[in-house]
Amino acid sequence: MLPLMRPAVDAPRSGRRGPHRHADGALSGGKIQEPPWVELDPARPLLVGVLPHTQCNPQVEGCGFCTFPHDRYDKGLLRRTTEAVAAQIDHFFTEHPELARRRVDAVYFGGATANLTPKAALAEITRVLGQSLDLRGAEVTLEGVPSLFRSLLPGPFEALLEMPARHRRISMGVQTFDEGMLDRMGRRHFGGRRDVRRVVEKAHRSGLTASGDFLINLPSEGRDRMLSDANEAAALGFDQICIYHLVLVEGQGTPWAEDPAIRAALPSVEQACDNWLAVREALLACGYVQTTLTNFERAEVHATDRRFLYEEHSFTPDRYDALGFGPLSISTFTNLAQRRAVKLARGKSLEGGLWGAHDLYFPYDEEDLRLLFTTRSLARLRIPRVTYSALFGADLTEHFGEAIEATEAAGLARLDTEALHLTPRGMFYADSVAGLLAWHHVDALRAAGAGRHTRDVLQDEVRIRFTDHMG
């Protein structure tokens, strides 16, 4: 989380041009950083995330509930940002050509409203990306709102069709088919059920799969409305349906979260859980397979190589590294042999190279890696014991015995010889399960903090080595 991340450059930000590469291959900013080393493992395949910009254009700020740090639509700024992203990709692979040799299994164009990006700008980003990475074996996804996929003129949808890829897919933020709620969100112009149906049909005619994001437990929303949305989404032919429980708490900073009347219209946590369980059962009854905490995939799609891979692979940090480009993008590199990893968060500014004065990083030691593996595995509904033992040299119960006992006692998880499995109820309370797994480490951080900001607790520096000859 951001409070635990440190500035990538410790020196004052003014006048900094970002990190530079030393003669020994180390990447650092401002000064030579001391060990621990994080050497990149060239055998690990890549996931690539591209945020072309941070803009969207709802008629209500953040649709009322969105916490993503977005900007209002500005055509000139959008053009300059996408140009900077393309330049950033080109510069990165010029500096680090060894990463271009990695296998790429999935690319995701997302962020705010990715399909606001003009066709030419999206094509240029893809061209620059394809100069260094072989995308022909990858799944490529473009995220956005339904109405912008329906343009009669060549647009982002057509740019996606021209991308080199093994499989292409679109992901739409639908949220709900309730027109009154869409008005409340300022999303009516993003498209209703008619637009959604036509986009799904267009995708299928073009050989793409289509995914839709839906919110449940909206203010004053009854369970019948939630079930209606789920059943209608299934009837429209979505290949994947993602269900998200709306979280609104005072102090969150969104317009809805700061409105007492809206917060009072939310269901209780227990009611919200019951609603989630009902929607889950409805989708399973419609022939969908639950693949992650939020994603349900049509069984006949899930049984093929057209299933949604980016999300699945992003929850396997033991296998994949993630490389992010664009404002607020995330990159994560793991070296299991060293028991170390690093997470890098790009700032909004794209000035300087990766990673510089506007960016943050978090260095993982072995205990952090255990938590990274276990909590990310929860998103895939189970923590496999054999894999955990192979990675960390001990059974899951040796490191997390108390937490596992507590989750079982609460009916949130079930342990057998193969894995710790979340129960359906535990899926809704997965954050609480993750908190139990992490509580010893959290207590230690708080004790060491002695009232200081959590960012100040992490004193170790990280040194990142991009080389061609690891191992």
Structure explained in plain terms:
The chain is an alpha/beta fold and 471 residues long. It has a domain at 20-30 and 38-313: Transcription Regulator spoIIAA (2-Layer Sandwich). The chain is 36% helix and 20% strand. It has 16 helices and 22 strands. The protein has helices spanning 75-95, 119-132, 156-161, 179-185, 193-205, 223-235, 260-264, 269-285, 299-302, 309-314, 366-378, 385-392, 396-409, 424-428, 430-449, 454-457, and strands spanning 6-7, 20-21, 26-28, 37-39, 46-50, 55-56, 71-72, 104-109, 139-144, 167-175, 209-216, 240-245, 288-290, 295-298, 321-325, 330-335, 340-345, 360-364, 382-384, 413-415, 419-422, 463-465. The strands form five sheets. It has a nine-stranded mixed sheet. The longest helix is centred in the N-terminal third of the chain and has 21 residues, at 75-95. The radius of gyration is 22 Å and the shape is globular.
Question: Could you name the key traits of this structure?
Answer:
globular; Transcription Regulator spoIIAA; 20% strand; 471 residues; alpha/beta; nine-stranded mixed beta sheet; 36% helix; disordered C terminus; four-stranded antiparallel beta sheet
